[in-house]
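Listing S7. Sequence submitted for prediction.
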Amino acid sequence: MTSNPVIRTESLTKFYGRQRDEVFGYLGPNGAGKTTTIRTLLDFIRPTRGRATIFGLDMR
């Protein structure tokens, strides 16, 4: 049986000013980007680049 991921992201990025960091995991301490990811998936904020799908549908 082949299962498809519920959430898939491709180069999903959000820049806030000049600072540029990378997040390699979803779980992490404050400032790791967890809330930004959720807000982007819910289309509350727009990503700087990249895309995400939920159940195969584009988040936008």
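Caption to Listing S7: primary sequence and predicted structure tokens for the chain studied. Helices lie at 34-41. The first strand starts at residue 7 and ends at 13.
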